[in-house]
Amino acid sequence: MKRVTNETNVSVKFNLDGTGIADSTTGIPFLDHMLNHGLFDVHVRATGDIHIDDHHTNEDVALAIGTVLLQAIGDRKGINRLCDFSAPLVEQTPLLKESYSHDKDDLNLNSNNIDPDL
């Protein structure tokens, strides 16, 4: 599966019935690391505008993997929801700060991409 946009160029090979073999080069070390934690085989090659920000590459890799995953599971018969999870986005950090009365040091946010004035 290939996904090419103005910001990224992504190629994904995916085997749902694999053994956990991951071979990913996205330019984003944390994303490459996380792609190593599935019981499927995934091969990802991605280039993008990470010199500006990594969100386009993350987004397009996720869309490409989602596309091949949907193709792999077919009609979804026999697939049931096991759990549900939600997590706050970085953009919600000011709301969390207000809601839970934490200051920015208590939140322990260590990304260079987070506004230091939060």
Automatic annotation (TrEMBL):
GO biological process, one term: L-histidine biosynthetic process
Pathway entry: Amino-acid biosynthesis; L-histidine biosynthesis; L-histidine from 5-phospho-alpha-D-ribose 1-diphosphate: step 6/9
Keywords: Amino-acid biosynthesis, Histidine biosynthesis, Lyase
The protein's Enzyme Commission number: 4.2.1.19
InterPro entries on file: IGPD_sf, ImidazoleglycerolP_deHydtase, ImidazoleglycerP_deHydtase_CS, Ribosomal_Su5_D2-typ_SF
UniProt superkingdom: Eukaryota
GO molecular function annotations of the record: imidazoleglycerol-phosphate dehydratase activity
Reaction catalysis annotation: D-erythro-1-(imidazol-4-yl)glycerol 3-phosphate = 3-(imidazol-4-yl)-2-oxopropyl phosphate + H2O
Pfam families per the UniProt record, alphabetical: IGPD (PF00475)
Family in the record: Belongs to the imidazoleglycerol-phosphate dehydratase family.
PANTHER family per UniProt: IMIDAZOLEGLYCEROL-PHOSPHATE DEHYDRATASE (PTHR23133:SF2), IMIDAZOLEGLYCEROL-PHOSPHATE DEHYDRATASE HIS7 (PTHR23133)
Protein name: imidazoleglycerol-phosphate dehydratase
